[in-house]
Amino acid sequence: MSKSDLTIFDGEARYAGRTRVNRMVYEFTQADLSGQTTVISDLFGLNGEVHQIVLDVSDSKLATNGNTQTVHGSFSLISDIPTVAGGEITPFAPITSLDYTNKVPGRYYQFQTNEGAAMGTQEHALTVRPGLSGHDTPAAPKTPIVDGTQTTINKNQPWTGRVCGNYTIKLRSTTAWAADTGIIRVIIMYS
Questions:
Q1: Residue 37 burial (CB count, 10 A)
Q2: What digits encode the pLDDT tens for the residues 59-109?
Q3: How far apart are CA 13 and CA 28, in angstroms?
Q4: Domain-embedded: residue 119
Q5: I need a surface site. Which of 14, 34, 113, 191 has the fewest CB within 10 A?
């Protein structure tokens, strides 16, 4: 697995108000995926705002490719800074129920940030979880509203897309990838 030559890095700064747009392309090869249920990329740097993530599974194939397996996949971006207890910190909530089978050749997913989007019943993209307490009945954190009343933050919030530092990509599947699977490509567009 490696960062692809298709990556474009246009620099760290701005030119007279022009935002530099970058493309990070990472490929998980057949050797990486074959027989595995979890694969994790090498560390790579991101600094800026992610706008779009394309998950190209057009050549992916699992050991079993039935209807049941079409919801076995997940995708996460993981910070190089773990929790104090050693857990993973993700800039957005992991995406689940992904189809890594070969039932529909040519399939790819597109995920976008949607800062300021209405949450709840509205369409939304990548989100951030507020977290819960460890109580038997987990409680969400609270923040005051206009009149000072403490109000529960009980929904995921839209992700701003901001990233800084080093990250890894984690792909998981309940069913292992087939020995003859093709590559999976992840394309991250950021400024």
A1: 15
A2: 999 999 999 999 999 999 999 999 999 999 999 999 999 999 999 888 999
A3: 30
A4: no
A5: 14
